[in-house]
Amino acid sequence: MCKSRGVTDPVFDVVVVGSANLDLVANLDHLPTPGETLIALGYAEYPGGKGVNQAVACARMGAKTAFVGCVGNDDAGTLLRSVLEGEGIDTSHLRTVGVPTGRAFINVDSHGENAIVVVAGANAQVGIEDNFFIPHSRVVLAQLEVPLETIEVAFAQAKNNGAITVLNPAPARDIPQTLLSLANIVVPNETESVAIGGTKNLLNLGVATVVTTLGADGASIDTASSTIHIAPHKVTPIDTVGAGDAFIGATCAELSRGASIEDAARMGAIAGALATTVKGAVPSLPTRQAVLAAQKS
Question: Considering the entire predicted model, what is its pTM?
Fold first, then answer.
């Protein structure tokens, strides 16, 4: 992979380096236990992948957004490209490759809790081409559903360009210190935080700011010298799929406007809560107008 960047690239608010999946969602009374077979109460297919979800979340929050990723030469890939373009997201760096588009198999129970299995597919090809580079932006956001070495290259370029780098460590996996050292902000949920050693471990490894999403309890912002709790926005959830993506997308969009991490995370908490009131990932992601209206209510 080459770290050079074209000098004529447009400037975006947020560049998302991430996954593009077709989500296959089964609605169930309860999540299956090992060996249990259940009859689904309903089924739907949605555009998804944490990269796509977070890019759409950024765009709906008013950020000029570009997406860096890969899809297959199949119907799912065509759908995902059209979804991104329909949201006004730049897809110049979305490659079509000779591997099927990624899939996510999602079970959602009657309380809105979920269990997800992801098949990487084309996402494993993100960034492996020669002369890989990302466009210039104010914020670069990545997750862990694409190759880690690709994220390292993207974050190194972003730091050279003066961008804020935001890492969502999902799904939880071992993260090399070389990658963590390039992340200005790491945003795990509680499960992911435990899996990667907790907030103190991340701060000890050199991460400046850790924002932990706490579901119905809001969020926590930790630095080496302070802890700030972000109050939750109260709603009645029906589907938690996409809530974390809404939080992160809104937070990054606000950071790209120059907001402090505290103010950005407050908007993120509202966006995440609103996302739980609509079924599906992409369909649930709120607009900035909806978040501002909820903030005033």
Answer: 0.90
